[in-house]
Amino acid sequence: VQLVQSGADVKKPGASVKVSCKASGYTFTGYNLHWVRQAPGQGLEWMGWVNPNSGDTYYGQNFHGRVSMTRDTSISTAYMELNSLISDDTAVYFCARGSVTRYFEPTHFDYWGQGSLVTVSS
Amino acid sequence: EIVLTQSPATLSLSPGERATLSCRASQSVSDYLAWYQQRPGQAPRLLIYDASNRATGIPARFSGSGSGTDFTLTISSLEPEDFAVYYCQQRNIWPLTFGGGTKVEIK
Q1: A4: closest CA among B43, B69, B97?
Q2: Which A-chain residues 83-112 have CB contacts (< 8 A) with chain B?
Q3: pLDDT of B20-52, one tens digit each?
């Protein structure tokens, strides 16, 4: 199992960023893909998930209206787009596979991408 | 949301010593608690899930215990590669939440 993410990005405040996560080594549609971020020197913050089979999504309250998680099953890739960026969005963004497969059941994460640093700066 | 409080914030130990890390939840999470290890510049790695189950490939020196609101991660004898930050995470209810982390550093 591998999750390979897109590279680092620098954005201006107010812009949007889209991070990709390409999965391999397992059935892409069998597991929800989650996004977790980590600000510099800080802890982990869960953002939400996308179900690669149905396209259903579920977002954390902190990101409602500002985040969009999508997927392209033809290339086994999930995406996280965050809009209206502010400096506090500067963080490493991780995708992670949810290991519990029962629909809508909360999960832990058994595989993680390497992380994508997004820097928001004017 | 459920708040997870980890203690201590930093643990200073020598290789070969036993490490005991604590995670306390603001309300019961049953046994739906996981532990992760994060080394500098790396993604977190799942160590323990559902309070006491070791993830695939995790050495037996790592063990987890607890239920309800109080959980413990024990590293029986610290190896050099175990000096890292450890996070707990609950999956009892949405939203998923993490503790603030415990840094295990070399004394």
Answers
A1: B43
A2: 94, 96, 99-100, 105-110, 112
A3: 999 999 999 999 999 999 999 999 999 999 999
